[in-house]
Design goal:
alpha+beta
Amino acid sequence: MARRYRSSRRQSYRALGLLLAAALGSTLVLAYLWSFLGDLGEMAFLGPVARALVIGWVLAFTCRRYYLSNARIAATIAGLSTLVCIAGSYAIEFRHERSQQIQAAQELAEQRRAFGVAESEVQAHYEESVAGLTLGNHARLAFGLRGPGRDRASNLLGPAFGISLLTLELIVAVLVSMYLPAGQASEPVCASCGLWLREEHLASSRFGKSDELIAALLAGDGADALDALEPPDTKESLELKLASCPLGHPQAGGVLRLYEHYYARSSRDLRTRHRADLILDFGEGALLQAAVSRLG
């Protein structure tokens, strides 16, 4: 009976370490650089999503390069890295603004001393000014919880809208960053050596047979489903590919990969979507070969 593909190979500490190093490096570099872009870097959705795409691409490349095949680990690290990167940008910006305000408070204290104000009063005013320069107060001022909001959304539509928009931006950014590395890490690998499996085109069948084929193979009724496959009559089709180890390690009956080629409703362009990866047993592998020879 076929079963859905899931990597059973234990991840090496080297691959996990390199993935963490790539995540940490990209997070720190982006957080530092983004803090100097100001309003341009914090445009609604564009700023967070841009950082998410960079982190996702770096981690997807690392997964591909070092054969990390655990989608949950890759997605979790990508999501956390994106949150840390965005928070780090805000933290660096806050520290820069805080240092400027401290410098301004020091200059004001010197001016007050020059005008003969008592030292105790000058020092008390300076300490009060510095004590209020906290991250919490910075956030309250930004979202309009204490005076006019510095965040544009909060300034226009109130603090609740500004906080909600930021939360939505974070959710979208996290999902975007998780997509690329999770997709790469979910690609089939050899259980023996960990290399990515090599795909070989087997045949194309009539479009619309994928759900029937997947259900039948998972239920152990692959013979009937494979017999029902027919050659495609349009450019829309179901493509069958067999994935195998590039070094020749046995994979039972192989990993069957199913792709649908279909016309997009909006543009009528021919697109491709991946439907399923199924691990076949030896009997199903033989049936598949017979169906392929019949389809031509």
